[in-house]
Amino acid sequence: MGTRGWLFDIGKCTGCHACEVACATWNATGAVSWRQIVKIETGVYPNVGTRNLSMPCLHCDHAPCLQACPVAAITKRDDGVVLVDQAKCVGCMFCFWACPFGVPQFGAEGKMSKCTFCADRPAELPRACEEVCPTKAILSGEMHELEALAARSGGERVGGPAGPAMFVIR
């Protein structure tokens, strides 16, 4: 199995928040939201608009959260999925400050949590957020397959030194 990641089609997202609800329900996150719809403003007055971006953890190639954790509570699996060991987390917030995407969330217990790429679901099944998306704006899979799909649709990989595992079609 290769590195796993995301493909997101901004043009398809209606901002319905079904992905947020599915993620919270599947992962029993309580008040913490591991996936959030972010509004992106576009254009110049008077031709302005908004678009939606469903933001999960991007399971970066060079995850700043992993590098910042002083107690090694954050690990990266062979398939690229970045996970947090709640038993080791001391709630120092270094991961939160290190993440350029603002992904880590802190619950009432004072521990960091974030998207696990539905680590408890079989790889051949869609992620919970992907499964419920009515417009099929979210796709998960092997990075090399997502790259080919993105290239055919004019998409590109999210940039930056962290190496986010996400392609976006605008």
Overview in brief:
The chain is an alpha+beta fold and 170 residues long. Helix content is 21%, strand content 26%. The protein is built from five helices and ten strands, in the order βαββαββαββαβαββ.
Describe this structure in words.
By secondary structure, this protein is of the alpha+beta class. The chain has helices at residues 18-27, 64-68, 94-98, 128-132, 143-152, and strands spanning 4-9, 36-44, 47-55, 74-76, 82-84, 105-106, 112-113, 138-142, 156-157, 166-169. The strands form 4 sheets. It has a 4-stranded mixed β-sheet. A hairpin with a 5-residue loop joins β4 (74-76) and β5 (82-84). The radius of gyration is 16 Å and the shape is globular.
Largest sheet properties: 4 strands, mixed
- C-alpha end-to-end distance: 28 Å
Q: Return the string of H and E elements.
A: EHEEHEEHEEHEHEE
Helical/strand content category: alpha+beta
Gyration radius, in Å: 16 Å
Corresponding CATH architecture: 2-Layer Sandwich
Number of strands: 10
Helix content: 10-25%
Q: Tell me, what is the CATH class?
A: Alpha Beta
Number of domains: 1
Enumerate the spans where pLDDT stays under 50 for 5 or more consecutive residues. Answer: none
* Overall mean pLDDT: 95
Strand content: 25-35%
Please tally the helical runs, counting DSSP H or I stretches of 4 or more residues: 5
Strands in their spatial order, largest beta sheet: 8-1-10-9
What is the overall shape? globular
Q: Any idea of the CATH topology? A: Alpha-Beta Plaits
